[in-house]
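Worked example 3 (structure in, sequence out).
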């Protein structure tokens, strides 16, 4: 019944119904689609609410909404920028398996659009180990190629005890300039 009501509604009602559905089922594609589409709404209140609501998205849906959220880091409205930033930081701090690393990776693919999150990425980098550390370093280096602190971690990853960190360090090294 909620999904039908969501499909029949528009504006903030549709947004709130989508948020409710996403909280019940974080993998619900139609609800996440409504929330993601609302990030482009002309009304900044709708955009900010959508950004906050996307924090309910499941790991399976996060990869496709991170680019839209990172675009909103440069929104004209402070409220929207803050909502997008807080949602992305929540993804980075998540204890859900794979979510933090996936978020870092996708943010890295956004390049300079993700610059507002560099302080948070650096904070996470200081606390990370193993493969997560490699993913964070890759993201930082892709966002700011001149960042030596992150760039130096990539070659050093070959000394990590965790075999996945060593194995996966080769890919980031092939995609960024670590000179």
């Amino acid at each position: 019944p909620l999904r039908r009501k969501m499909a029949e509604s528009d504006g903030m009602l549709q947004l709130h119904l989508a948020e409710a559905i996403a909280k019940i089922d974080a993998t619900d594609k139609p609800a996440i689609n409504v929330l993601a589409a609302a990030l482009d709404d002309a009304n900044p209140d709708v955009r900010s609410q959508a950004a906050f609501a996307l924090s309910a998205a499941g790991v399976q849906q996060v990869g496709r909404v991170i680019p839209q959220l990172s675009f909103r880091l440069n929104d004209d409205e402070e409220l929207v920028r803050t909502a997008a930033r807080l949602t992305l930081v929540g993804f980075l701090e998540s204890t859900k398996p794979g979510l933090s690393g996936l978020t870092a990776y996708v943010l890295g693919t956004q390049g300079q659009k993700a610059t507002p999150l560099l302080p948070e990425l650096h904070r996470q980098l200081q606390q990370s180990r193993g493969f997560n550390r490699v993913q964070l370093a890759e993201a930082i280096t892709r966002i700011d190629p001149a960042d030596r602190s992150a760039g130096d971690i990539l070659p050093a990853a070959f000394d990590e005890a965790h075999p996945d960190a060593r194995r996966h360090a080769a890919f980031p090294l092939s995609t960024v300039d670590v000179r």
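Notes: The two ends are 57 Å apart (CA to CA). Residues 125 and 133 are 6 Å apart (CA to CA).
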